[in-house]
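Hi C.,

You asked whether I'd gotten around to modeling the 215-residue construct. I have! Everything is below, sequence then structure, no commentary in between.
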Amino acid sequence: MKNFVITIGRQYGSGGREVGRQVAEKLGVPFYDKEIITASVKETGLDAKIFEEMEERVTPSFLYSLAVGTFTPSALADTNYFSLNDRVNAIQADTIKRLADESSCVIVGRAADDILANQADCFNVFVHADLEERIRRASEEYGIKGDRDEVEEVILKTDKRRSNYYNYVSGKKWSAVSNYHLALDSQRLGIDGCVELITTIALRLRPDLEKKNAK
């Protein structure tokens, strides 16, 4: 049986990362977000700052190589053929596949739902919230500085970056309901409500996770 992977796409400020962390804790499975960067760094020896700065970004050269079928793992080593950005994205995708092979888990962002489409038993979730609620959370919980308009700009730019990355990597539209099995409004349901719903559905889909934790 394939490992069960919950992937979580999220609008910035929706609390999607915290939802994923708590779901993983309740199910007793690994949680991966920034941890993917750490795992990728260990494999490559590249500076972690490189991965952080290029997180969820994609370049035209990488897209073109995928489209014409010239991408190969060995080509990644050729810095003249692929930009550093391209290499970082490919390395992270490879890391996501490896982590999903190792165990059931929860993965936030990075187009994991598309990367793992044919590899794992995935349950794909998208967490969203009203803009005003996201502005509040970004200011109060994430520590984003500035007035309301400045915080809104950070939110919209982050969502645009995530959208561009997902759209290019997957060929689908970020946040489109057809890409996900479940879409949750964290403002209406609250973090706890989102966690409860995802956990309940996950255990219905894969009761073996509950049996494993009962041992």
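If it helps when you're writing up: Residues 60-81 have pLDDT under 50 and may be disordered.

Thanks,
B.
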